[in-house]
Amino acid sequence: MDREGHLIERVRRRFPTAGDGLTIGMGDDAAVLHSSPGTEWVITTDAFLENVHFLRKIHPPKAVGYKALARAASDIAAMGARPRFFFLTVGIPEALAGAWVDGFLDGMARAARRFGLILAGGDTTKYPEVVASLTIVGEIDRGKAVLRSGAKPGDLLCVSGRLGEAELGLRLSQRKIHPRKRPVRLAKKHFYPEPRLALGAWIADHKYATSMIDTSDGLSTDLGHVCKASGTGAIVWAAKIPTVKIPPRLLRQVDVDPLNLALNGGDDYELLFTVPKKFSSRLPGRIDGVRLTVIGEITRAKKVLLLRADGKTVPLPSRGWDPFRKSG
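The chain above was modelled as a monomer; its predicted structure follows.
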């Protein structure tokens, strides 16, 4: 068996490769899928690149594999769909074709089992840096997909979980700060994010949300995407945002503002969604153990604003993740 064939076999051994809806899977030139009656496919692609999305000196290979699949699955959650199949294309340096790749595949296999994903195909190649491309196929009942573009003036703006946790985890790792108490919890969301698949499906099934997006790029940026797609504005209430809790001793070491982390830190993969006010009383405080918080309102004026804790309203510029933004 050639070296690439050996790598493909190592991939095949780790993942579920058969299931309902998959007629032809790994081993042929292309996959053949079929959906259930009354459903639609929801398909997303996501790149995960060394020195752009992860740093080999900081991120263990298991975390890289897990996160690569988790962040792609989050786009499925943001549409309210159920994950079904995925395709993996990966390029690696020859020097990493042993233990590093095994760790990467183990982490991704863990994510695939957790999210209920079946590997349907992909490609492998040699490349100077680690590059991965994930395509995920989800399924949703016909007409239930939740888009970015449906927000209406007067809708309430809601978010799941806490914001800024992943950015805090990144900064702790970059500074090699490992607090004695709760170090795993403080950095877990950065290394092993949890796409809100159950929550997204619940929101789609109940037809409460008028729009939805995941917070992959940060609240300030992702809210801007919703407003642009919907032709609206928004006002965010700073005092209501569920920010990350940083122990006082650690706060002095990292010198960060929890509100800034929540507004502009990416990688949280929480769900940001809008609901009409008439449905607000029906929205539970938690779904599948995940807290839901109302943090603002959609407005007619096409501006994104922040109502600060001191009562002053200021513009909320997009300062989240942007791979094309110039530094300095």
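The radius of gyration is 20 Å.
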